[in-house]
Amino acid sequence: DCQVTFVKTLENEGYTALQLGCADMKPQKVTKPLLGHFEANGVNPKHKLFEFEVTPDAVLPKGTLLNAAHFVPGQFVDVTAPTIGKGFQGGMKRHGFGGLRASHGVSLTHRSIGSTGAREGKVPKGKKMPGRMGGLNATTLNLRVAKIDTQLNLIYVKGAVPGHDSQYIKVRDSVKKVGFNKFPKEAKIPFPTFNPAVLPTLPREISAKLSNKVFVQNDKNKK
Questions:
Q1: Is residue 114 part of a domain?
Q2: Cα separation of 133 and 81, whole Å?
Q3: What is the pLDDT of residues 160-204, one digit of tens each?
Q4: pTM metric for this prediction
Q5: Which residues is 158 bridged to in the sheet?
Q6: Which UniProt keywords apply (predicted)?
Q7: What is the CATH number for 45?
């Protein structure tokens, strides 16, 4: 579960934000500065920390637990995660260069990037060249929440999510959708977050109707 580990205020930091931590860690595996940070805020050490800017009326107290029911099925979200690392790659794969000619005088340099520019014997800054590819944060915008599993605390989204399997990702409300375009018209938006006391009364799966199709998980045990 995600938990609020720190609250940034307008008076102290100049902006309002919540720091969320997920996945508890053993204290002996945390550095002393971070361990002191967690102890001062009264929370267990966390494996990963994320920060979300919020409005002053959406601030949550330290120690508040967040679950998948914080999001509404059918709403739009943005997902951020490190992309899959590709290692050191050439210009054709990294930047989509066309390469040199396949024949007519070209030998052994078919996949070369060609000239790097003539500027007083220097390479211009920002020149696209071979180098390490992937492993940087990427954000996929406007993915729709298809379904929520309240028992397993899972969020199903429709679309591609950056990164490899079993890695930490950051999910937030869409920043390019404004007002009611961000949420379904009939949805009850939990503000500032979902009330965990109502969780036992909810069904296990809450689905959204997308493109005239209802997303329902297939039960392999049914015959």
A1: no
A2: 15
A3: 999 999 899 999 999 998 876 888 887 788 888 888 888 888 888
A4: 0.82
A5: 144
A6: Mitochondrion, Ribonucleoprotein, Ribosomal protein, Transit peptide
A7: 3.30.160.810
